Amino acid sequence: MSSDGPSIRNSQSLVDQVIANAPRLPRITSAVAIYRHLHAAILSNALPPGTALQDKLLCAEFAVSRTPVREALIRLAEDGLVDIFPQSGTFVSRIKADAIPEALDIRQALESLAVSRAAALAKPTDIARLDQLLARQTALAEAGDTGLFHEADEFFHETIGMIADRPGLWRLVKQVKLQIDRTRVLTLPAPGRMIQVVSEHRLVRDAIAAGDAVSAQVAMTDHLNVVIPDLARLRGEYPAYFT
To answer: Any idea which GO molecular function terms this record carries (predicted)?
Structure first.
């Protein structure tokens, strides 16, 4: 991959690849299904920033009318993942670097609460669940599977919310961390990075297991803060991906 990422001229082939295996959708659920499919593809950078999303081609690929496609794209625009220019077209948005520090502050506040409660409430069975997730993350890191590793990473954080008996916190976190996710996914292929993430997660797990809320909060904050130095580096490596 070049440092500037794929050009818009080549972007339609990327769209074709992403939706090649998409199911033909029932009319009543098509807008939501298209939204979820494109949402996941954008967050994983399977559809990188700057990729053109053409209504007619999306309609043909998903075998639907223009209405559900437009509804899906409008929702993505509301999420800040798509830019719609009436006279120019629709494109996957650039990653909004200036929005990341504020999103990180919100995420840290919510996850700090979750991990503190988890340290107070965790049972041996909960720690066993975290251990299973860490084992899976380790295996995926060793296999170099960045996509499934990111999913396992997400579930580790979600599980902490469930242990804390605050599952709604994770739903709120997901709403504010979209630009963070797009940045973090870019870091995973770096040599040793996924193993580093597992090590950071293990420190969180150990503090929860010890019932040490303060150490759990510190470990979680340190883990989440890594995205800031990453951001400075990635903006240099992928200048076309960021605004």
So the answer is: DNA binding; DNA-binding transcription factor activity
Reading the block at residue 148, the tokens are 């499934």
Q: Are 14 and 6 in contact (CB under 8 A)?
A: yes
> How far is it, in rounded angstroms, from Cα 131 to Cα 137?
10
How high does pLDDT run on average in the chain? 91
Q: Is 90 helix (H, G, I), strand (E, B) or coil?
A: strand
CB count within 10 Å of CB 163 equals 24
Report CA 94 to chain centroid distance, whole Å: 15
Helix (H), strand (E) at residue 83: strand 82-85
Burial class of residue 226 in the structure, from the number of CB atoms within 10 Å of its CB (0-12 exposed, 13-18 middle, 19+ buried): middle
Residue with tokens 């580096």: 233
* Residue 82, strand partner residues: 92
Q: How far is CA 115 from CA 45, 61, 129, 184, 237, in A?
A: 29, 43, 15, 21, 33
